[in-house]
Each structure stands twice: as structure tokens, then as C-alpha cells.
Amino acid sequence: MKKVNYKFKKALITGASSGLGQEYARQLAETGTDLILVARRRERLEALAADLSGRYQVGIEVFPADLSADEDLNRVAGKIVQTPELDLLINNAGFGGHGQFHLDEKGEAEQMIKVHVVATTILTRAALPAMIARRQGAIINVASVAAFSPLSGTMYSSTKAFELMFSENLQTELYDTGIRIQALCPGLTHTEFHERAGLNLSAIPEIFWMSAEQVVRISLRALRGYKVIIVPGSINKIITFFLRCPWTFNLIHRASRQKKIREMADRSLR
Q1: Distance in angstroms (rounded) separating the CA atoms of residues 138 and 4
Q2: Is-catalytic flag, 160?
Q3: Helix ranges, 90-231 (H)
Q4: What's the CA gap between 160 and 135, in Å, rounded?
Q5: In degrees rounded to 5, what are phi and psi of residue 186?
Q6: CB-based contacts of 256, cutoff 8 Å, min separation 6
Q7: Catalytic residue among 10, 160, 227, 259
């Protein structure tokens, strides 16, 4: 398999209006890559496009879309098919949640499946034919260290685990095509993500956090190699190592059972 060049002609980025998506756009524009920016918030996309095109003299197209809506998802897939020069797709759109699956009455589970699983699958499939035909291209699926964790929410961890396994299996399928597939698994990153998910993580020490700039730079540089799963940062690598150990799951489940027993005992005494 040949190495993928860090320099791309045109990239489509979903979830481009903030966080990692915005940082991917900035770093790619800096290298001269033309961009198609996809997100729900048109005003943010337009502001980002004006800033980057003015600073880096690259072509930028704004494409507002809600990937949880079938019509919008199909429009984005159609745009990819109509852009055969696209040589980098970044499936970054996503959102977090902290509610329990069995108590979900707002349809958050279904929406998460649409954005993390269905959109990733459909957009990847739309991009591959042209990439395979010219034997060049790359796809980054932004997963999470939560893909390895039983503590990050049932649906969030499950859909991120799909993105990870989808990437690994797809790279095996495409091993001799010149296409690179990456599953980026960031940990705690300074973006709007946690605030939008309603999570207050301010008590977590700074040593556990990374900047969006650091995470994206590691991701793009990794495309020069062959590794599919990219876990940025030493702390995240250590966390992931322990999460993948079978005995870690046993400890977590045992602690969870003990907590439930204590809660039941407390209720019985009231």
C-alpha cells in the first residue's frame, strides 16, 4: 500500500462549524486544500469560510446540512458523488449525551445512530468509487476513546465503537487500492463538545486534556503511515490500554453491581 500525501486537493468536512471540524478546516486550508464545509449552522460556516479563504487563498464552499435528516444526508452524498476530485473525507459530525438508554424518550438514541453510523456509512460509500478509480484518497472517521469504554454512555460508546470497527474492516477490504482509512480516537479535548452535551468536566485536571490543534495535527500526520486506529496523546494511550484489558471490564462491572446493591439497600431502609 502506498503512503498518502499530507497535501490534498479537496476535502469535505462534516461538523465543520466548531471543534475538531473547524480545526481540520484551518489546518487543511493552511496546506492549500480546497474545502467543502458541512454543518447545521450556516452563519458559523460562512464566517469560517470568509476567514480561511482570506488568509490562505483557497476555494471554500459552504454546505449547510443536518445529517440526522434523510433529505440533507442525501444532498451531501450527492455533492460528494458530483465532486470526483474529492480526495479527503472527514466524517466528524457528532454529538454526545449522558442520559440512560432505557430512559431515552426524546429519540436521542435514534438520532445518534443516524449521525454517527448511518451518515458515516453513506458518505463513505459515496466517496469511495472516485477514490478507488484513481487509487488515491483518504477517509477519517472521528471516533473516540469512548469506543473502548463501558462508562461513556450506552449509545455514544456503541456508535463510536461502530466507527472504529467500520474503519478497521474497511481498510482491510481496501488494502491494495491506495486508499487510507483512519479512525481517530481522541480523549478529552478543549472544544464545545462537552458543554453542548450538558457535561461539566471542569474538575478534571489539565493533564488529561488536549487542544483541538494537537489532536488534528496528529491525525493528519498519521495519514503518512499505515495505522488505522489513532489515539492521540500519551495519557489517552494509557487509558485506552487499560480499557481494552479484560480484567478492567470485570472490575468495572463488579463495582457497578456493588453500587446497585448499595442503592437498593439504601432505598429499603427509607
Answers
A1: 7
A2: yes
A3: 108-112, 119-134, 154-173, 193-196, 212-222
A4: 28
A5: -75, 160
A6: none
A7: 160
Q: Give the closest residue to 115 by CA, choosing from 167, 156, 170, 55.
A: 156
Place of cell 456493588: 258
Q: What domains lie within the chain, and their CATH numbers?
A: 10-244 (3.40.50.720)
In three-state secondary structure terms, 92 is: coil
Quick one: pLDDT band at residue 249, thresholds 50, 70, 90?
A: low
pLDDT digit string, tens, across residues 199-232: 666 677 788 889 999 999 999 999 998 899 999 9
User: How do strand 189-190 and strand 179-184 relate by DSSP bridges?
Assistant: unpaired
One-letter amino acid identity for 139?
A: I
Is 156 a residue of the active site? yes
Are residues 100 and 157 in contact, defined by beta-carbon separation less than 8 angstroms? Answer: no
Query: Is residue 259's pLDDT more than 60?
Result: no
What's the rounded mean pLDDT across residues 29-36? 97
Annotated catalytic residue, options 114, 156, 175, 260: 156
